[in-house]
């Protein structure tokens, strides 16, 4: 028997609308994201970088890739995805097959909901080793993705604070 697709139907996604678009990243956000990865022991490690296809997500991903490689880190894979697709399975496999030390996400909320569900239900992806820009830390993402899909994911806000997903909540703090 085939497993049902983790894809959310458009009418289900519309329950959480209006979905925010990915915002341009800030210098403070990027610096905090890099510091967070270092603080979690990933400095110089391999990172799989995933991003949406909108301009803000592509720019954030390019800025991260440049800064990560300049600091001695390696990119295990780079994959992008559309906001809407039939399944996102090909992109999910591209992100997880190199078995990176960590994942970094720059994406709009609606696309990240779908991609995270595909990653969680179809691969060995671990949200506790996943870090994101501010746009990925929206509370609607956590709710729409479903229970446990994103628990443990962390990231940086636009003003350089931290966010963590714990038991279905996005918790922001200055610590860490």
Would you mind describing this structure in some detail?
The protein has 176 residues and is of the alpha/beta class. It has a single domain, classed as Rossmann fold. Helix content is 35%, strand content 20%. The chain contains six helices and seven strands, in the order H-H-E-H-E-H-E-H-E-H-E-E-E. The protein has helices at residues 10-13, 27-39, 55-70, 89-96, 109-122, 139-145; strands at 46-52, 74-81, 102-106, 130-132, 154-156, 162-166, 169-173. It has a seven-stranded mixed beta sheet with strand order 2-1-3-4-5-6-7, with helices on both faces. Helix 5 (109-122) packs parallel to helix 6 (139-145). The protein is globular.
Note the gap between the termini. 45 Å
Strand content: 15-25%
How many beta-strand segments? 7
Helix content: 25-40%
Alpha plus pi helix count:
6
CATH superfamily: Response regulator
Query: How would you describe the shape?
Result: globular
Largest sheet: 7 strands, mixed
The structure class reads alpha/beta
The tally of structural domains comes to 1
Give the CATH level 1 class.
Alpha Beta
CATH topology (level 3) name: Rossmann fold
Report strand order across the widest sheet.
2-1-3-4-5-6-7
Instruction: Look at the structure and give the mean pLDDT.
Output: 91
Radius of gyration: 15 Å
The residue ranges in which pLDDT falls below 50 over 5 or more consecutive positions are none
From the 3D coordinates, which CATH architecture would you assign?
3-Layer(aba) Sandwich
Order of helices and strands: HHEHEHEHEHEEE
């Amino acid at each position: 028997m085939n497993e049902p697709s983790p894809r959310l139907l458009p009418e289900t996604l519309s329950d959480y609308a209006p979905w925010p678009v990915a915002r341009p990243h800030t210098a403070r956000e990027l610096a905090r994201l890099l510091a967070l990865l270092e603080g979690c022991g990933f400095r110089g490690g391999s990172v799989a970088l995933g991003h949406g296809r909108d301009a803000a997500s592509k720019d954030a991903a390019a800025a991260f890739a440049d800064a990560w490689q300049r600091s001695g880190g390696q990119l295990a894979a780079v994959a992008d995805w559309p906001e809407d697709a039939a399944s996102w399975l090909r992109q999910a496999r591209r992100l997880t097959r190199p078995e990176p030390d960590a994942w970094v996400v720059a994406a709009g909320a609606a696309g990240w909901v779908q991609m995270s569900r595909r990653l969680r239900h179809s691969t060995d992806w671990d949200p506790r080793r996943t870090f994101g820009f501010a746009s990925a830390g929206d509370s609607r993402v956590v709710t729409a993705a479903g229970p446990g899909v994103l628990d443990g994911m962390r990231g940086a806000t636009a003003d350089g604070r931290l966010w963590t997903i714990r038991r279905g909540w996005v918790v922001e703090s200055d610590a860490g």
